[in-house]
Amino acid sequence: MTDTGSIATRRIVDVQWLINARPLSPYQWGIVAMCFLIVLLDGLDTAAMGFIAPALVRDWGVPSASLGPVMSAALAGMIFGALGSGPLADRFGRKAVLCMSVAVFGGFSLWSAFATGIDQLVVLRFLTGIGLGAGMPNATTLLSEYTPEKVKSLLVTTMFCGFNLGMAGGGFLSAAIIPHWGWHSLLLIGGIVPVLLLPVLLFWLPESARFMVVRGQPVERIRKVLQPVARESLAGVEQFTIPGQQARGMGPRGPVLARMFAGGLGPGTLLLWGTNFMGLIIIYLLTSWLPTLMRESGASMTQSAVVGALFQFGGVLSAVGVGWAMDRGNPHKVIGICYLLAGVLAVAVGHSMGSGLALVLLVLFAGMCINGAQSAMPSLAARYYPTHVRATGVSWMLGIGRFGAVLGAWLGAALLGLGWNFEQVLTVLIVPAVLAMTGVLIKGRISHTDAA
Question: What are the residue boundaries of the Major facilitator superfamily (MFS) profile domain, all occurrences included (predicted)?
Fold first, then answer.
């Protein structure tokens, strides 16, 4: 079924055909908006520690290197959240796991604002990270299953702009509020807003229709969530299907790892993991330590926060363009070029301290490249995995990648502890940039298939 005709005479309707054959409805734009907000808040809470670190050093009288466990705690929690949430979402649904993730990271971020010491903050940030790790992969999966193929990468990377915008917004917000209300204020905002968003998600966010078909849920329930997409009566439809094997059943069963490696998915799975791992080393070393490195190089606290925010804001500027290019060209080459440029620009940033406008522009362009590439990775994974394992595949790619995020945050602390300076720390980032580029280009050559 490839035509765009009426549904009125059809008894069997392919869900993906229905979504592909029609322009985006207000209902689908609402899903985009809700997923965007979730990811924005995810980004705000994820980056919060990097922006409040200078204030913690001042208020608690601790050395910068001692904040390494605090910087890494949420990232470690994100590993568990991502690895655990995907299989749960493929079994119980994307919406349930997504709403739970918002409740967890909102609640524990709020609690973190009242921490009184490093040990307590480490525990609370770890628990916050579990919720954060579950949020992004399931927002990616749910949105990808409600978008037409021709704009899937564009819309998923646009949603991912919310993550970069949340991280950048955290920097601008912290520069405005921390000098007046202290470091607690950023964590309070990062907790209260998700809690307020939760009722909206529970009432208005739909479950994935593709997931409902795979799980064999009643036709009437599937009809109800697809009616606003179709914008014409589905009363005569007796069966909904999706392309390929999953239309006839549940898809391959067995352990999570077996499902992600079955049917020729193995090489692509490993390359997605490796690429995401290397990209997150770069992002989280810079996110966690750029404001502190700037501060220790003589910049004011406000200047340090603003420059850190510009790094994240670069991703907002580039993510839509990267998604657009992916839908119209070779997505692996687009991402690979962005990774390489990110490494080169990170080295240039390290050599430009004290250069004023040049430093600002280089940080912005570096953010555009690395965040643009990284924002495209969930879309690449969502396109690669079939429905029955999509949430698991996306979440495990992000979860394995979080080991790179932990390594990046820890690496910053370790290099500072060894006495490395601003230039030396940033120069080392060319290594993971080249490895990320290599991984995604090899994936494009040996495993380019997109799932139906």
Answer: 31-451
Tens digits of per-residue pLDDT, 113-127? 998 888 899 999 999
Architecture of the domain made up of 12-446: Up-down Bundle (1.20)
Domain boundaries, the chain: 12-446
Query: Of 403, 405, 392, 443, which is closest to residue 141 (Cα–Cα)?
Result: 392
Burial class (CB in 10 A: 0-12, 13-18, 19+), 117: exposed
- With contact defined as beta carbons under 8 Å apart, do 127 and 104 qualify? yes
Spatial contact of 136 and 39, defined as CB atoms under 8 Å apart: yes
pTM over cut 0.85: no
CB neighbours (10 Å) of residue 59?
A: 12
Amino acid at 157: T
Distance CA 405, CA 278 (A): 9
**Residues forming beta bridges with residue 93, ordered by sequence position:** none
Q: What is the sign of the dihedral through the CA atoms of 143, 145, 147 and 151? A: positive
Helix (H) or strand (E) holding 262: none
- DSSP 8-state symbol, 206: P
Model pLDDT for residues 219-248, shown as the tens digit of each residue: 999 999 999 988 887 888 888 888 754 444
Distance CA 388, CA 357 (A): 49
Are 365 and 317 in contact by the 8 Å Cβ rule? The answer is no
H or E stretch covering 285: helix 266-296
- R_g (Cα) of the chain, nearest Å: 22
Contact 132, 71 (CB under 8 A): no
183 close to 56: Cβ distance less than 8 angstroms: yes
Q: In whole angstroms, what is the distance from residue 299 CA to residue 292 CA?
A: 9
What burial class does residue 60 get, using C-beta atoms within 10 Å of its C-beta: 0-12 exposed, 13-18 middle, 19+ buried? middle
